[in-house]
What does this fold into?
Amino acid sequence: MTARVAFVTGGAQGIGAGISQTLGANGFRVAVADLNLEVAQDTAERIGQAGGTAIAVHVDVTDTESVRSAVKTVAAELGEVEIAVNNAGWDDFMPFLKTTEDFWDRILDINFKGALRVSQAVVPGMVERGFGRVVNIGSDAGRVGSSLEAVYSGAKGGIIAFSKTLAREVATKGVTVNTVCPGPTDTPALRKFADASGQEADKVIGGMTRSVPMKRLADPADIAAAVAFFASDAASYITGQTLSVSGGLTMA
It folds into this structure.
């Protein structure tokens, strides 16, 4: 158990909510940082009802000042950020040749530059204090590619490379940087994609499930367990690593 302060972007729902709740259950003081403050408040309340400590904080990871403001709010209400989980993300499924530069910019601004903004806001303090954990949420799309997700895959591949480089730069400062790459995960976003696929949603979900050797989709709690490990003191000698949580869908 720990009372360290964790800042989770996109922490209100889906994988982010699973991470926030798991960290709360493990004794972290959690800042549920999200664009949707109302849903973030609901998640923070659930953590509190389960015996944890959490606050909701509004953040727009595409806005540097919003990120800095959120970090200052957390420092004032919970303490300095010791664990940063860069989970905020967005995607839409389409062939690359149908994408536009505006689409590219949005994908990169949220999924890649958002993590850069948060890291730049919190890592200097971690270095100064001699302790920190950065856990970036990548994707197996960034490791092996994913049809209809070319730009997203590129952004997540960038997250993996960025994490390794930052890990090297701060390795002697008591700060670790690791990446967790989820495979297909049962979230509202995935269900929305299935519903909009033009096919029967159950068939889409069924096809995804059959492709996983374990024959089930991940639950957000599965991803959260890996994040909690990287955030823990037990992972103090692990940095620059990329861990897929995919039920065996991708290996090595």
User: Anything to note?
Assistant: The chain has a mean pLDDT of 94.
